[in-house]
Structure formats: structure tokens, C-alpha cells
Amino acid sequence: MATLRELKGRISSVASTEKTTSAMKMISSAKMHKFTGIVRRLQPYREMVRNVLSHLLVTDVEFSSPLIETREVSNVAIVVFGSDDGLCDAYNINIFKQLLTAIDELRKQYGKNVKITVIPVGKKMMKAVSKIETKNIKVEHVEYMSTRSTMEQLSDFTELLRSRFVDHVYDRVDIVYLRYVSSSRQLLQHEQLLPLSAEALAQDIDAKQACSPCIFEPDANSIFNSVLPLHMRATMQEVFVSSSASEQASRVIAMQIASDNAAELLEELNLEYNKLRQDSITTELLDILGGQVER
Q: Model-level pTM?
């Protein structure tokens, strides 16, 4: 049975843990709101790029670009966004499971001999994917890419993927990440980044855009080839920030659970401490009364 001193020490330790997890929850919540704010600020730019593409795609011009070129797929790159830090519940585990599902889908579609290059973003994801490296699955680490990378570094990374696709190093580029919807809801995503699909881009066209005539200078195809890399970069920016917001949302939930568990344990320890203290006082009183009776 624990002594009063031992219980007091445990109560102090649990109380300190509760304060720490509550503070970490507040920090993660602030970071989550910061990233969701960045997502909202990025949306007008992406919408503008989509509108330009929409106006282009309603014309009768036949477009050509290396970014929409479809070819026989033998090499696929998968960029998977994880975290650099832990304490975010099953965030990395769920994304890793989605990565395995994506690999299985690609093998079913292109055959078991398709070569896959996994490019992890985040130390935790790097550690996880290193275990699946085989003859046909290569893991590549881009040193300057992490969850703390700047937008300039992300742009460089996006350009690296674009150039490798254009140079036929990769025949297809996919992304796997956790998309932020709300603080309590995030969705696992497996999306194709390259080649860009003209049909998917055309889905954003509304009736007003289809009826509005435009004059393109110098020509529609040149503008199309200039805007496509911007669309790709905007997509990567949104994915990167949304993934970061999801990480912080997962950490908020994890810290909330840890804080609730600590509070529950603290309540139990306080109850046990008070009972033991009351027993100790009762025993002392009985000893005093027993001494008086003997006199």
C-alpha cells in the first residue's frame, strides 16, 4: 500500500503532466488556426488560376503540354506527407496505411513490376517508409523538404517533380496526405499530381465562364503552358498547408485525450490520498484516546 508521501509525489507528477498537455494543446490549436488561415489566403490565388484554365478550356483550341502527356507507366513517384514530430496520435500511422493502399492500387493498375519511388516529407514518415524499401520500391529523401519547409523550398521541390516528369524519370507522380476539413475531421487522400488531367480541369468550368468570350494574347496554347505550372504549384501549396493543419488537429485531439486521462487519474489519486490521510488521522485519534483510557 502506498504511503502518503508516495501518493503526494504521484499527485504532483500527474498534475504537472496535466498542465503540460493542456499547454501543448493550446500551442497546437494556435498552430492549427495559423495553417487554416494560410489555406484560406491561398484559395483566391488557386481560384484565379482555375478561372484562367477554365476560360482556356472552353475554346476550340487543341492544347499540348508535357505536363498533360500520358504515356506508358513504368516509374511512379509517390510524395507522402507525414510529420517531423510525434505526439499526434495515429496521424502518421493512418497516412502510412494509405500509402500501402496506394502502392497496391498502382501495382494492380500497372503490374507488379512497376517501379515506385516513395518521397517522404517528415522524419516520422521517413522512418516508417524505410521499412518497405524493396527491389521495386525505392525510398528517396529530399533533404530540404520537411514540415517546416518554406514556400520557396516547396516551390523548388515542385519544380524538381515537374522536371523529372518532363525528363521521363517519372511517368506519373502521386501525392498521399491527410486533408484538413475541420478540427474534428480530416480525410486521407491519394491524388494524381502528374500528368495533369485536362478533363479534371474542365470540371471546374461553370456556365458563365463558358459563355464569356475572351481574347488571348499571344495565343491560348502558350498561356495554357504558362498557367499549368502555376496550377501545379498552387496544388502543392494547398496540400502542404492542409497536411500541416491536419497534423496540428491530430495533436490537439491527442493532447486533449492525454489531459482528460491525467485529470481523471489526478481525481482518483486525490481521493485515495484523502482516504489514506483520513485513516491516518483516525488511527492517531484512536491512539490518543486509548492512552487516555489506560490512565
A: 0.85
